[in-house]
Amino acid sequence: MSDESLDLIERQVTDFIRRIVLTEKTYSNLDRSAYILLRQLSTYGPSGVKALAQDLHLDISTVSRQASVLVNKKYVEKIPNPDDRRAYYYQITDVGSHELEENKQRRFDRLSSILEDWSEEDKKRFGELLKKYNDTVNEKLEL
Which of 56, 59, 102, 130, CA to CA, is 20 to 30 A from 138? Predict the structure, then answer.
């Protein structure tokens, strides 16, 4: 890959991240970490802190701290692990599901507005390339 291509990708990824952070501050009630954790629990069901940390490529202490905030807000609850009564799982609550869905809808609305002039083909290709990028990054993280 040429330095020119790498420079273009690096600049665009940096700008993409910056815009996401700015958009979240303006349009979201959930910070990025809360949204990601709630989305993970909503998608895959109850999970222990160790599994969440592994799936999200984060430290156990980071996930534990983030989950504690969500427990205090009643977005997540701790439930006993049936296989090990000393351990517990985190499970999204109805309040957490509602907050996640509201935030997800605001994201959809914002993306729809931003991409309204794009062709369906461009939107699909953009999504496919983002998925390819994320899959590649995830593969590299697992090595």
Answer: 102
H/E stretch holding 6:
helix 3-27
Task: Enumerate the domain spans of the chain.
Answer: 3-142
Structure tokens of 65?
Answer: 């701290």
Amino acid letter for position 21: V
Which residues are within 8 A (CB) of 59 and not within 5 positions of it... i.e. 6 or more apart? 53
pLDDT of residue 143: 54
DSSP string, 115-126: TTTS-HHHHHHH
pTM of the model: 0.80
Other CB atoms within 10 Å distance of the CB of residue 95: 13
